[in-house]
């Protein structure tokens, strides 16, 4: 019999996703202050920020193996504890080199937490027998929105060190409380990677045209990459596009990005219901095509209200692509499948802003942003190639 859809384990794991988003947002809001603190140029800051990504990508495969050996739940608790402590470090750096070292550790906690949490979520999805993965990522999105708002309000009254310290204390408190609940909750057997011999396609059944599991996980990883390409590009370039190309005020530009972020969070709240109603393949297809259409509108619209409506469509369309791709990668490949797909997805978030920047210099930012529509279309169509595994 399936467990209660909103049992203690699901609530606790959602809290982990939310605090992960909160802590990352708390750091992002303070980047300008830390930059001034270490007296970094734009290029030097870029190299320091790259250390965060390097720490995350290098850690992800190792955490996948740790989840297989010790279980995803204790690794989730350990990773979030590391992240909560590491978020304090950037405020105490005084050079670009020490900032890079602090961000390596912060990235290790962030990357480890994402692999471990998603692995735990994949197991819980199997235990509940409901496609609830989008709801966990909704927790991350709303945690990020709250973190951005709270950290913005505290930017004046509190120093960077105090603000990040309070965020870290909150992270540790949630880690202890939610971790105790998560560790006490009953567990189902961890998801075991599918084997070709166990599938109908391997025995000459009607699914022979489907990709083998070894190919399935990379395909899902590329889907995550295409989705994260758009997320990274929009996070870094939305406000600049609205101010420079659409001639919106800074307030309107900030509102535009906020509308996109809220649309994504809202889309994830309804992701479980839509997955059941439409099926995961149809939901990803419609989501990707919606995001592609919305991105074309946002990139090419001459006035701010229409462009912002386009960004809202992008948020709604992209909302469930990444969570569902990670969920299916975990089902097919276990924690190491989650690690591979997450690493590819994180790579997409890294290259998106860079590619957009080079294309913007060559052809203008509006045209460069249309590549997000191309990536979203690819993310919509790739799930079709994995056939019934997505249904």
Computed over alpha carbons, the radius of gyration is 20 Å
CATH topology of the largest domain: Growth Hormone, Chain: A
The CATH class of the largest domain, by name, is Mainly Alpha
DSSP helix count? Answer: 14
**N- to C-terminal separation?**
21 Å
User: Helicity, in percent?
Assistant: over 70%
Major sheet details: none
Along the chain, the helix and strand elements come as HHHHHHHHHHHHHH
CATH superfamily membership of the largest domain: MFS general substrate transporter like domains
Helix-strand category: mainly alpha
The count of domains is 2
Portion of residues in beta strands equals: under 5%
Number of strands: 0
Coarse morphology: globular
Give me the CATH architecture of the largest domain, please.
Answer: Up-down Bundle
Poorly predicted regions: 195-209
What this model shows, in words?
Helix 3 packs antiparallel against helix 13 (321-363), helix 5 (96-128) packs antiparallel against helix 13 and helix 11 (280-300) runs antiparallel to helix 12 (304-318). 80% of the residues lie in helices and 0% in strands. It contains 14 helices and no strands. It is globular, with a radius of gyration of 20 Å. The chain folds into 2 domains: 8-184, MFS general substrate transporter like domains (Growth Hormone, Chain: A); 197-390, MFS general substrate transporter like domains (Growth Hormone, Chain: A). It is mainly α and 391 residues long. The chain has helices at 8-29, 31-38, 42-70, 72-86, 96-128, 133-154, 160-184, 213-245, 250-269, 271-278, 280-300, 304-318, 321-363, 365-381.
